[in-house]
Design a protein that fits this description.
Layout (H helix, E strand, L loop, with lengths): L5 E2 L12 H10 L7 H14 L3 E5 L2 H11 L5 E4 L6 H8 L3 E4 L22 E5 L10 H11 L2 E5 L7 E2 L2 E2 L6 E5 L12 E5 L2 H10 L4 E2 L3 E2 L10 H32 L5 E3 L13 E5 L7 H10 L2 E2 L26 H9 E4 L7 H12 L1
Parallel strand pairs: 1-15, 3-4, 3-5, 5-6, 6-9
Antiparallel strand pairs: 2-10, 7-8, 9-10, 11-12, 13-14, 14-16
The structure holds pyridoxal-5'-phosphate (PLP).
Protein name: dTDP-4-amino-4,6-dideoxygalactose transaminase
GO molecular function: pyridoxal phosphate binding; transaminase activity
Organism: Paralcaligenes ureilyticus
Length: 368
């Protein structure tokens, strides 16, 4: 392997000179934030690209999650997955909400709809599923349960930029969907995020909440936060959007190459082949089971020794962290499939510019 460490992702950056005209516009306008022209253009461009009606930009995905819960006045208990990044449930704690963990489906690693009903109590007000690795949740089954029990559904769609199902954007499901534009995500604005809103009224409320709860010049109607995306980040988004299809195409090729090269290795399983579906290839998770020659952590270490740094997303489970493990729903027996996945998963490097020779060497190391 070369001298440089190979990480699981490398942020995509368009040529720097393409960014200069955007900076010149910002410098000329002297509008740096507070829903300026770049912000407005990016909201429109993202609606067009994603095929959604309303979007509200944020300074990051975590503040967007916090605000999504606040906007819908979610209280009490919210059903969610332990197999995610910790921001998912932190957003609940910040709103004084009790997370209730439900196990995942071991085939999709998403919240298992068949296990949701048993976790519903009179305090339950919403479900917060995650489209893990950008693979769509069983949105119809989840909506059916939500309708039966009068629950809201807020998707943590941080991994799901550009993903579609048979009817269009996956982001149109549920009451709200929340995106992250962090540097490590498929579409990035360095830091950033967004909420997909179903109607104009909800967008206006969310726009107010991300601006301290201000309504007009002289009135404040809620304890809102500063969730605004700056003009600099919005400009980055406008530029990135021009290149995102290219970036996703590159990821798709890497995904197929891994699948070819890793096929038939005993104890190694590639997850959810998107096939012809519009996916984003955000991650390339493999499961390493007991039929493989060494343990998952053994393989993790072996790759690291060769300068390759895969990630064990999501190990440990959120339910294992100190501020969550006392919850009744965090007990191991309640989350068996999630616990198995956390011990088997390894996310391999996938990003535009990852050399084919490196993909082959990684596959060779896994095979040997
Ligand atoms: C990245 C991520 C977030 C948080 O997004 P930030 O923009 O980094 O705040 C939330 N949930 C999931 C599942 C994520 O992967």
């Amino acid at each position: 392997m070369g001298d440089k460490p190979i990480y699981v992702t490398q942020p995509y950056l368009p040529p720097l000179e393409e960014f200069m005209p955007y900076l010149e516009q910002i410098w000329a306008s002297k509008i740096l934030t507070n829903s300026g022209p770049m912000h407005q253009q990016l909201e429109q461009a993202l609606c067009d690209y994603l095929g959604v009606e309303h979007i509200s930009l944020f300074n990051n995905g975590t503040i967007a999650l916090l605000t999504a819960l606040q906007a819908l006045r979610i209280t009490g208990e919210v059903i969610t997955t332990p197999y995610s990044f910790v921001a998912t449930t932190h957003s609940l704690l910040w709103n004084g909400i009790k997370p209730v963990f439900v196990d995942i489906d071991s085939r999709t690693l998403n919240l298992d709809p068949a296990k949701i009903e048993a976790a519903i109590t009179p305090q339950t007000t919403a479900i917060m599923p995650v489209h893990c690795y950008g693979h769509p949740c069983e949105v119809e089954a989840i909506q059916k349960i939500a309708d039966n029990y009068n629950l809201r559904v807020i998707y943590d769609a941080a991994h799901a930029f550009g993903v579609q199902d048979d009817n269009g954007s996956i982001l149109r499901h549920g009451d709200l969907s929340v995106l992250s534009f962090h540097a490590t995500k498929v579409f990035n604005t360095f830091e950033g995020g967004a909420i997909i809103c179903p109607d104009e009224k909800t967008k206006i409320r969310i726009d107010q909440l991300k601006n301290f709860g201000h309504v007009g010049e002289t009135n404040v109607v809620a304890p809102g936060i500063n969730g605004k995306m700056s003009e600099f980040n919005a400009a980055l988004g406008l530029l990135q959007l021009k290149h995102v299809d290219y970036a996703i195409d590159c990821r798709k090729e890497i995904d197929s190459r891994y699948r070819e090269l890793l096929a038939g290795i005993k104890g190694i399983h590639c997850l959810n082949d998107a096939g012809e579906k519009r996916a984003n290839y955000a991650y390339f998770p493999i499961l390493v089971d007991e039929n493989y020659s060494i343990t998952r952590d053994g393989l993790y270490q072996k790759l690291k020794d060769h300068g390759i740094h895969p990630r064990r997303y999501f190990y440990p489970l959120i339910s294992g962290f100190s501020m969550y493990r006392g919850l009744p729903s965090a007990q191991h027996g309640n989350l068996v499939a999630a616990a198995v996945a956390a011990c088997q998963v390894l996310c391999l490097p996938i990003y535009p510019g990852l050399a084919t020779s490196l993909i082959e060497e990684i596959a060779c190391l896994i095979k040997a």
